[in-house]
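Mods, move this if it's the wrong board.
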Amino acid sequence: MMSEILLPTFSSRIFMDSQVTFKSFIHFEFILVYGEDGLRQVLEEMKALYEQNQSDVYDRLLRIRALRWEYGSVLPNVLRFHMSAEEMQWFNHYKKSLAAYMRSLGEDEGLDITQDMKPPKSLYIEVRCLKDYGEFEVDDGTSVLLKKNSQHFLPRWKCEQLIRQGVLEHVLW
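Not the wrong board. Structure tokens:
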């Protein structure tokens, strides 16, 4: 037949016996059947798909990173349900790296940069004590007695946890 003369058929056994891998045979057979231009086109399409996939993965990781800033270090179950094991592993690694970085900032206790998404207008705020709390130590080593209905002008970052606990309230003018 004419086609056998133009395109001889090769068996993978011949190539395997001559120490050429089956993978090489597939590439060789592809070139014989589709030609060099066909192979080039397939490789370009594969490269485009790979780059698109990388872009999608990067976009998804950016969204997962944003979840840490929005929800904190513990994600709601409804969000975790839609994440793969690898994404949860990446999230956990990111939150640990962020925590280590925040501990390295500032004084002994570090600085929680996730606290205020907008910079505060002042570093000190006026607070009112909602219940008796007792002695409260400020940065310079001085103590303040937090008694019910007393008002104080204190560093914002030292008060935020007590505000969340309901011990203090921010007095707004």
